[in-house]
Specification:
mainly alpha; two-stranded parallel ribbon; 2% strand; Four Helix Bundle (Hemerythrin (Met), subunit A)
């Protein structure tokens, strides 16, 4: 992610788009291979969502820094992730570690967040078919889905704070 951040700060948006695209494809293939070949480890299951959150935080923060995305959407995305991580951490400390599986709404939200970043990079890179209206529409969709999934996770995680560890739960991608 340092390379991506440097590229955005230097306004080399086309290269940053390629780097982020490669990272997204690599992450998707890695997850697919791990599932297909049953090579998921507890450490990988815990670290992959953290790496995804670091990627999204870096993308939103650097793009907001360069006025490619508005700061308010960056705050919404990061706040939701912080709330989820803190809630999961508190539950783990109080009730014991529990792996949290992704919800459908969380997956959709993450997909739209990533799409927003990719489209914003495309617009900043001057790709002809990517309009600023599309970026704006995705920003608003990201806001709605991010808020909805954040509320959903906070509500869905409440019962896990009160029950013994069962080995299943809810998490974000």
């Amino acid at each position: 992610m340092p390379l991506f951040a440097i590229l955005v700060v230097e306004r080399r948006y086309a290269v940053a788009l390629a780097v982020l695209g490669a990272a997204a494809v690599s992450d998707g293939v890695d997850g697919l291979v791990a599932r297909v070949y049953h090579q998921q480890s507890p450490l990988g299951v815990a670290l992959d969502p953290i790496a995804d959150k670091i990627l999204m935080t870096t993308a939103y923060a650097t793009l907001a820094f360069r006025d490619t995305l508005p700061w308010w959407i960056t705050i919404v995305v990061i706040s939701r992730d912080v709330a989820i991580v803190v809630t999961a951490l508190v539950i783990s400390l109080v009730s014991g570690y529990r792996p949290f599986t992704p919800s459908l709404l969380g997956k959709i939200s993450t997909c739209v967040q990533l799409s927003t970043v990719l489209v914003a990079l495309g617009a900043a890179a001057g790709i002809a078919f990517v309009s600023h209206r599309l970026v704006q529409a995705l920003v608003y969709a990201t806001a709605v889905l991010t808020a909805a999934s954040g509320i959903h996770y906070l509500v869905a995680l409440r019962p896990y704070a009160r029950t013994p560890s069962s080995g299943s739960g809810i998490s974000d991608v």
